Amino acid sequence: MTRVSLVFFFAMATFMAAAQNAKQVKMEAFIDSLLQKMTLEEKVGQMNQYNGFWDVTGPVPANGDAKMKYENLRKGLVGSVLNVKGTANVRKLQEMVVKESRLGIPLIFGFDVIHGQKTLAPIPLGEAASWDLQAIERSSRVAATEAAAMGINWTFAPMVDISRDARWGRVMEGAGEDTYLGAKIGVARVKGFQGNDLSAPNTIAATAKHFAGYGFAEAGRDYNTVDVGTATLYNVIFPPFKALVENDVKTVMNSFNILNGVPGTGNKFLQRDILKDKWHFNGFVISDWGSGMEMIAHGFAKDLEQVAELSANAGSDMDMESYAYVTHLAQLVQKGKVSMAVVDDAVKRILRVKYELGLFDDPYRYCDAQREKDMIGNADQMAAVLDVAKKSIVLLRNETLAGGKKLLPLSKTQQKIVVIGALANDRNSPLGSWRIGSDDSSGVSVLDGLKKYSGAITYAKGADLVIGKTDFINEVKINETDKSGFKQAVQLAKTAEVVIMVLGEHGFQSGEGRSRSKLDLPGVQQELLEAVYKVNKNIVLVLMNGRPLAIPWADEHIPAILETWQLGTQSGNAIADVLFGAYNPSGKLPMTFPRSVGQVPIYYNHMSTGRPNPIDLVFWSHYGDVSNKPLYPFGYGLSYTSFRYSGLKIDDSNPAAIKVAVTVTNTGKYAGEEVAQLYIRDKVASVVRPVKELKGFSKFSLNPGESKEVVFTLTDQELGFYTAEGVFITEPGEFGVMVGGSSDSGVTGVFVRK
Ligand code: BGC
Known about the structure:
Elements: H1 3-37, H2 40-46, E1 48-51, H3 66-74, E2 80-82, H4 87-100, E3 108-111, H5 124-128, H6 133-149, E4 154-155, H7 179-194, E5 207-211, H8 230-246, E6 251-254, E7 258-259, E8 262-263, H9 268-278, E9 284-286, H10 294-298, H11 304-314, E10 319-320, H12 324-334, H13 340-356, H14 369-375, H15 379-392, E11 394-398, E12 417-420, H16 446-451, E13 457-460, E14 466-467, E15 477-478, H17 486-494, E16 498-504, H18 525-535, E17 539-544, H19 552-557, E18 560-563, H20 571-579, E19 643-651, E20 658-666, E21 672-682, E22 693-702, E23 707-714, H21 716-719, E24 721-722, E25 728-729, E26 733-742, E27 745-753
Helix pairs in contact: 1-13, 2-12, 2-13, 6-7, 6-14, 6-15, 7-8, 11-12, 15-20, 17-18
The structure holds beta-D-glucopyranose (BGC).
Beta-D-glucopyranose is lined by residues 57-58, 82, 112, 156, 209, 288-289, 512.
């Protein structure tokens, strides 16, 4: 920078900081004066959120009748509603409140915009497999644009719960098992949702959820007890939340589970001590659906009045569907059990977000019916979700066959392709779970996508995956018995050059309340796979699933396996592009795939035991019936080309910025993208550290024969850790380092942090 431009830069920065400050002062003055005018009941009203009578995303409380809700809306006793969609509906409720309540404080409309509103991107776990922060940010912006155009102000996303248990159905909603990757992806999502200006027409407020520990439900059973040590809490569970707070996430949702015996909603340590005091979070905390009320079932509160007292004092600012605040909080203040300061603080936090959304300037700013029409599913949005869908696909296997060829990519002149599996012809399941704003069966199926490439495709269902109705509310019933379609599928397979089998889970088999005790291919699908394999071994297995699966048989026998998760609206187009090589797969697993469900929880960044190796007969840490190794490790994913890692260089002369460089070369025949991943191991520390920890990654593309030097910088932030008391420390000593295309292989070296 020249001197002149430097002076200009500083002048601009000072000017912008002053402008920001002036805006802040104006907002605080507005909110203070509004607060002065509010009665205690009206303040409590701001802390009350109702479900908006249309979709439900949790159990419906007995007293959830519409008449009472309408009355309370008119009285200004409701600060927010969720699950209302469409500008017409939003406008109707907003008008009721703005025109009829005494102070006319606008509602904030919340919605679970999880991986899109109408136009859907891959499920979040799938999208995480892209390791592409720009594509992920763009995908969240698509979601925000459509949601805002439909009147929504606020999404209950991203979920940044780390989870190591594929049995837990909600792994589909997060970014996988790793805290470093999870934090980066969570921040990208917040940037996509919120942008720099919350009042813009294409941004909405985001939520970091569920604070905290929800992903560690025992045995992967949703809502179950959580019991984790503090080292795990500070080093694994907290960092993504902290990163989101540092990136100005506007709200945080607490969680259903207990932590050290205290439910999230009544947890003062989490909400006040850590979130608001230590991390200086200045947005507001929303409870989870009825999570306040659930403290009664937990045995933590004796009745709804105590729920209100415990929740408010613990720092839960807004009550979703427990009716605790609206029923009891005002009296609790009068009785002196909750202070006015607690209420005022909560209300100010909520009003600030409304102010920043621009709702006080114009409560109907997100209610433009024309914009709603123009923005939904437009070409730019479709292109963005197709792009991230392609990037989310992970190639798990692509073996060289007897003649020296591989099955993938398919050639466009391929003579006879047979497609088998109910999921191949399904436009609904690939949309995945958590998509209440979208239309059923609005996705592109695999068959739709393939037909654009080749006319020579025949299809047999083989077997239904599910029986009966599938929707967000019903339990998905799996076909365990009906094999009547096997014969036709096997007959067809005999005639094929290549068989594409599309198998896996239904989109509603994962998500909230959808835990599984098995991780195999559900129903009769494994039998179908084996029956077809008997007559034709040239199978490409296209997996669709919302969680890691344990598929050791397929891994042993099937030459090509593609993990496609549930890819959203453009699913079939993305899969066809990858199968035919128009896009070279670049995804890497964000979560370990086990060999057997008995290995779960299985994750790459575990600690070393005192007996890690088979040095003895039986007395070492292992199973007698399965290896310790996963089927597919974290970070793993193949390409149609190959990459070589070489020339590791380390410069540890400056402990504040240790440099690690490596050269990556495309040694194959196709252009392709690679995700170079850097892992460290703190060899000896005052607290045992993981055998490996991801501390950097970089995604880039290389042409055949091309090389690139990738340089990583490791600072205290990457090399330090939290003690069990929550203190962040760095220690001198020796570190192992590995850089590669997966957590299980790469070039290795050692450095010393002085
Ligand atoms: C889920 C939340 C969700 C809320 C509102 C709850 O059941 O746990 O993640 O945001 O419902 O739909």
